[in-house]
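LAB NOTEBOOK - FOLDING QUEUE
OPERATOR: T.R.
BATCH SIZE: 2
PURPOSE: Compare the predicted structure-token outputs for two unrelated chains run back to back under identical settings.
PRIORITY: normal
REVIEWER: second-year student, initials M.K.

ITEM 1
FIELD SEQUENCE / FIELD STRUCTURE:
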Amino acid sequence: MRGQLLAECRAAADDPRVRLAARQLGELGRAHDDLITDLRLGRRRLPPFQTPAGPAGMA
């Protein structure tokens, strides 16, 4: 979202805010890839999905 806002305000590519947003987006992408790899290899797991219970599906 922050990257989009910076693009809309036409911030220069050398603006420190743009550089920080780009670096953080790259880190987020790598972390997501690492999570997917760990899930596939069984090193991590996601919590089991739980269906809401109670009246009208309320938890």
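ITEM 2
FIELD SEQUENCE / FIELD STRUCTURE:
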Amino acid sequence: METTHISALNAKHAGLDARIRIESARPFPDSLLVATLKKRKLAIKQEIALLHG
């Protein structure tokens, strides 16, 4: 179960990373959206670290 959860978190983390790259590549990126996505990505990274012990 835990490895499934970690896999799901890794997938979400990768998805957020892709969204950040796409938004940042736009001519006029939405800086608020990028900041929000980065915060969500960091929260997921921290959760993964906690689960790994």
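REVIEWER COMMENT (ITEM 2): The mean pLDDT is 95.
FOLLOW-UP: none requested
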